[in-house]
């Protein structure tokens, strides 16, 4: 599974671009692989807009992942 980042400029928010893009991706996937039974997606808990899109499309949480980072180098 590959991950990525989608960045939307503030002036483009609120036009349902995320919904349109996710629906288009799902349609393309189903057209190419009609026997697919499930789709995995990842959205940050803080991304309320995409979580609302996921809810609208019937996508449900099956797992939560916590990511941690720490600077590498000399300890302060």
Structural overview:
33% of the residues lie in helices and 0% in strands. The protein is mainly α and 76 residues long. It has a domain at 36-63.
What are the defining features of this structure?
76 residues, mainly alpha, 2 helices
Structural class: mainly alpha
Mean pLDDT: 85
Number of strands: 0
The radius of gyration computed from the alpha-carbon positions, rounded to a whole number of angstroms, is 16 Å
Strand content range: under 5%
What is the overall silhouette?
extended
Measured between the Cα atoms of the first and last residue, the distance is: 36 Å
SSE succession: HH
Q: What's the total helix number?
A: 2
What can be said about this structure in brief?
With 76 residues, this protein is mainly alpha-helical. The protein contains 2 helices and no strands.
List the helices and strands and how they pair.
Blueprint: H1 17-32, H2 48-56
């Amino acid at each position: 599974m590959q991950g990525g980042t989608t960045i939307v400029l503030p002036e483009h928010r609120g036009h349902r671009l995320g919904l349109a893009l996710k629906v288009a991706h799902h349609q393309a996937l189903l057209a190419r692989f009609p026997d697919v039974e499930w789709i995995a997606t990842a959205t940050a808990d803080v991304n309320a807009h995409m979580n609302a899109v996921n809810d609208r499309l019937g996508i449900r949480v099956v797992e939560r992942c916590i990511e941690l980072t720490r600077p590498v180098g000399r300890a302060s």
